[in-house]
């Protein structure tokens, strides 16, 4: 008989198939040296019964038998953008290829909560943790307090913690390449739209922008990015056109994300301002929809596949007791129809 909570037991599978509980355990739990030999045909019948009865194995019991799951934890901001969500998806792919499952824990703009999530992951038996979210305004002291001596963790981007391994993304070269391309295609008043903060991401983008300008004048528009609010993004872009682009006569814009630049494209087109004829545009993150706007949006790719692979390699080296290799992944400028001569 099934337990009162309706959960299917090994004994239920055994009764369904007409074999011993030991035989079922051998098939569903990969019991190894203590396994009972079962024919291929019987094993197939057992697995079919498991599927039919919706059997769910007890992971804690499996760990006690000495066959624990291989788990890797990921820390992520609950309001992270699409690029981070795609990075988590890519991490799932590369970790699965190494035989690991991914556990994801979230917090938002709160390093103490992020640390609590890290502890929960460790309590659930993860081998190590990849932290994708830690670059918060004025958060370094708190980050040092909670993660300065944290073990078995790799960070995305330099957390500024001595001895803690990380994977860096070279944004400077790609942003510089985008600005240089605009300059070479005739734009001489190129503006940058960037979040009003001092985060590593923003600092690197500004550096790349200035490098690409060469001797051209600098125009930087700083703002607080609206999250998941289409109306707020639209208002922001309208304000940027009226208060930044038109007064300065700008003919090129580098944006901090593709959503804002797509909204800007829509507003410019609605006002009869031609893209790329009168103004060239380039976003950031290389979202899939960039291929389907009119014209298609140029963007900067954060090389998600390369970062996922580098993060996993770094963590595996750490878990093997090695000093992880320093890895820098390069972002890439992707020119499309929103820029001239493409």
Structure commentary:
The strands form 3 sheets. This protein has a 6-stranded parallel sheet, with helices on both faces. The longest helix is centred in the last third of the chain and has 19 residues. Helix 5 crosses helix 12, helix 8 packs parallel to helix 9 and helix 10 crosses helix 11. The chain has 3 domains: 55 residues, lambda repressor-like DNA-binding domains (434 Repressor (Amino-terminal Domain), Orthogonal Bundle); 94 residues, Rossmann fold, CATH 3.40.50.2300; 131 residues, Rossmann fold (3-Layer(aba) Sandwich). Strand 1, helix 5 and strand 2 form a beta-alpha-beta unit. By secondary structure, it is an alpha/beta fold. The chain has 12 helices and 12 strands. It is elongated and about 80 Å long.
What are the salient characteristics of this protein?
elongated, 3 domains, 12 helices, alpha/beta, six-stranded parallel sheet, 342 residues, Rossmann fold, 12 strands, 434 Repressor (Amino-terminal Domain)
Sheet with most strands: 6 strands, parallel
Number of helices: 12
User: Strand order of the main beta sheet, please?
Assistant: 2-1-3-4-5-11
Order of helices and strands: HHHHEHEHEHEEHEHEHEHEEHEE
> Mean pLDDT, rounded to whole units?
89
Instruction: Indicate the proportion of strand residues.
Output: 15-25%
| Total number of domains | 3
Query: Which consecutive residue ranges, at least 5 long each, have pLDDT under 50?
Result: none
CATH topology category name of the largest domain: Rossmann fold
Query: Oligomeric state of the chains?
Result: single chain
User: What is the level-2 CATH architecture name of the largest domain?
Assistant: 3-Layer(aba) Sandwich
End-to-end distance: 69 Å
- The CATH homologous superfamily name of the largest domain equals Response regulator
Q: Work out the number of β strands.
A: 12
Please tell me how large the radius of gyration is. 26 Å
The proportion of residues forming helix, as a percent range, comes to: 40-55%
CATH class of the largest domain: Alpha Beta
Structural class designation: alpha/beta
